[in-house]
Amino acid sequence: xxxxxxxxxxxxxxxxxxxxxxxxxxxxxxxxxxxxxxxxxxxxxxxxxxxxxxxxxxxxxxxxxxxxxxxxxxxxxxxxxxxxxxxxxxxxxxxxxxxxxxxxxxxxxxxxxxxxxxxxxxxxxxxxxxxxxxxxxxxxxxxxxxxxxxxxxxxxxxxxxxxxxxxxxxxxxxxxxxxxxxxxxxxxxxxxxxxxxxxxxxxxxxxxxxxxxxxxxxxxxxxxxxxxxxxxxxxxxxxxxxxxxxxxxxxxxxxxxxxxxxxxxxxxxxxxxxxxxxxxxxxxxxxxxxxxxxxxxxxxxxxxxxxxxxxxxxxxxxxxxxxxxxxxxxxxxxxxxxxxxxxxxxxxxxxxxxxxxxxxxxxxxxxxxxxxxxxxxxxxxxxxxxxxxxxxxxxxxxxxxxxxxxxxxxxxxxxxxxxxxxxxxxxxxxxxxxxxxxxxxxxxxxxxxxxxxxxxxxxxxxxxxxxxxxxxxxxxxxxxxxxxxxxxxxxxxxxxxxxxxxxxxxxxxxxxxxxxxxxxxxxxxxxxxxxxxxxx
Length: 536
Fold this sequence. Notes:
- Helices cover 26% and strands 23% of the residues.
- It is α+β, with helices and mostly antiparallel strands.
- The radius of gyration is 28 Å and the shape is globular.
């Protein structure tokens, strides 16, 4: 019950007039909506602060477009992960089958910025029926990601087996059963499907030893609770039933070299159909609530049909067009918005990962005196670097961007020539690598098609040059120790075959310089490649 004194007080306040009578006119005006205002969404009209029906529709159209654009840029990674799975299915690879590139990857298949330097071997892991075991071969380098390209665990040299090989146990989100006490490297996935991707270096410029090791050692099979890894003592408390060792099926290897198949999501409105399929396939809790909200705002909800009407279809088409333009702008024209992505001052060589690291939040740790020194978290997602990365590249791992000499590989992307112009496939260019190239293992350039972001298709088949003599001759150094590599439609006179990468006169291209086992002079920037210059 309200007391009389309180009622009396309220009456006095109301009698005194409007509560904002002493607020400045300027402040009150700033709170109000004008009669009309011209905006990016068009002319907006209000009647005493209330939007007209036409204005409300413009606002809703703008909201839907904005959210669809956010979905495109923030969830391209999910569509890309599913596109890889579908690409493997297209060549007959089921979950657990290993696609291996025994003769290295070439330009026949469409993969986002893959290389022609190492032996790739990849598989999909169906975790919906229980955990899966991977017997990892020695000498590997790779990672396991979920269906949103969220990192699960590294394998091989950057992983806990440190390149010696071992058993990995990957556990899905719905598994509630017992796990082993030891014997496995255990990691958990938020999705019911996971992607395993690894590569192995050549041995003496020959891929065969690596291929033989992989085919002899790699196994993929379901985990059996109570078998290896579980002691009798663990069974005594009733948490697990003692079991014999599972019958390990023979691993099926599917050759990828020379095959033509696609692993890249569409850039038009069909992208949204693909991302919806990923949402329906995976648990609703496998992606963060913010992204789930963006998806739901345009009609993509786990467990519900995605049925955009004609109005929404047009908005999705526009959002896809702007979305792919965003990915391309952030790669080819990154300096316009993010000059800090340039690796050297005043250079067109860049890498977006140094801004926020592998998780797009905090730059990678500093490495000093044999120890990593993490930088303080920024607490902010680097959205542009994430959008740029996933539009042109795949998978995620802390090992992809770290400041430790002699481990892993580092990348410099080149999208523009020394004059800031796009590369013309009909022209010839050159780049000079000073002596003492900082790569303890080997180095290489690979050329990519601007449109597909896959290896450039020319009669050369392997559009690369580097220090390895396979699959193309090794580049030759000059007397002063420097190495010059040429890019052009025809081999320049007097230039060795290994120092030239063929281009297509009808197509543009970009390149990545890879330094495998990078040395300190890369990190302290005392070694620097030239810009890529036109040759007249």
